[in-house]
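From the pipeline queue, job 12 of 40. The input is one protein chain; the requested action is below.

Action: predict structure.
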Amino acid sequence: MARFKENSRQRLREINEGSKKTIDQGSDMNKKASEINAILKSIDLQDDEDTRAIKDTGNSYQSNFDTAFGERVERPGQEIQKQGREVSNEVGKELKNVESGMGKLEKARSISDIGQAAASEGRSRLDKSRQEYSGIINEVDGISEQTKREIESLRSNLKNAFR
């Protein structure tokens, strides 16, 4: 059963790595959009038609970056959040099982003084698992929420990059 804990921790690591990769991708896109926009803005033209061509180019860049952001950042971010909910739900179920087991061991311990140490030891080990599961849930939920906030912030920054 230790596999469940290790699998949960592994999935947590994968979610964290995916989050970092996704946020880095979004940050990189924002940086590149800003650099491109600076280049476009530095083009000094007098003719209205030429100026319009640069403005249209900026609008096209905006559209392309918006589409790419959806595909490369928002979609993976949604998948990270989905995986986070799955891990949180699975670990949450096991957490409830552990808490139930702790209660049952406490009940068994109270029946007789014979074996109380065994029940206490079992309860102590389950309490350690309870703490680990709670930590995994908190981390996964935190990563999911932070990923969502950072993607929203990056989207907001990118939204008007070429306007």
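Job complete. The chain has a mean pLDDT of 95.
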